[in-house]
Structure formats: structure tokens, C-alpha cells
Amino acid sequence: MPSVYDFTVTLNNGERLPLASLKGKVLVIFNTASRCGFTPQYEGLEKLWQQYKDKDVVLIGFPCNQFGSQEPGTDADIAQFCDLNYNVTFPMSVKVDVNGNNAAQLFNYLKDEARGVLGTKGIKWNFTKFVVDKNGVVRHRFAPTTKPEELEKSLLSLI
């Protein structure tokens, strides 16, 4: 049976991050976009990162252009936008698809493990968030409308 630890993420700086290296940490994995109504969530996500990174919580953003073409830039453009506008310091991947035939396998796994409303599998929009416990079990899936600070209770229960 696959595990979240079977996947490796290519970060936007070209580095490869094997998720197996994060065993024992709580993961928050989410798709992002720079031109979305939910883009200001970067601020709250960065606050979560700053508050909990020393408590074994790792946030990883995955830019995606599948929803309203709201992430049209290159990986370098996205990194610059996140740094200049939101001072994002948590890891960000290269741009990926989260649905369809070219979806990142990590997201296929996450969607299988944590279904959406009414059991739906597909990701509906930017800033869908998955929380994975320290043992690699996908524990929660949060809608794009869920604000980052609303994840705090879930994180505290898993730390």
C-alpha cells in the first residue's frame, strides 16, 4: 500500500525533497495560485509555518494553473511573487497539475486518502489543504474557503 512517504517533491529551486525525509513531522500540503481570490491565504500559511515549524510541522505549497488560469507564471515568477508579496519561506514545489491525466501522483494519492464533500475526489479550486499526521496518514482535507488559522486546531491535535 502506498504512503505519502513514497513521493519526492521537486522544489521550485530545483532541489528534490523526498517526503520520507519528513517522517515524524505533521505535513500541510496545498495547491496555490498567485492570481486567486484566496491568494491572501499565503499570509496565514506563512504565519502557521513560522509558528509551528519548530514543532515538527512542515508546509509545502504546490502552484497549479488548472483553476481559472490563475497561476500562469514560471516557477521563478511564482517564487518571486510569493517572496515579494507575502514573504513566503515555507517550501514551494514546481508548478503541478492536481487533477486530470497529468496530475502529480502525490495529489492522486492525497485525493484517494481524503475525499472532498459528498465523497468527491477531484480538487475543486486553489488552496485545498491536506493535513498528514506524523505517521504519514492523511487525516484531514480542508476546502479552499478554510482559512489557514482554522487549521490550527487540527495541527495541535497531531503535534
From TrEMBL:
GO terms for MF: peroxidase activity
Thioredoxin domain segment(s): 1-159
Entry-linked Pfam families: GSHPx
Domain of life of the organism encoding this protein: Bacteria
Keywords: Oxidoreductase, Peroxidase
GO biological-process terms attached to the record: cellular response to oxidative stress
Keyword Methyltransferase: no
CDD domains noted in UniProt: GSH_Peroxidase (cd00340)
Homology family: Belongs to the glutathione peroxidase family.
Name of the protein described by the UniProt record: Glutathione peroxidase
Organism of provenance: Alteromonas confluentis
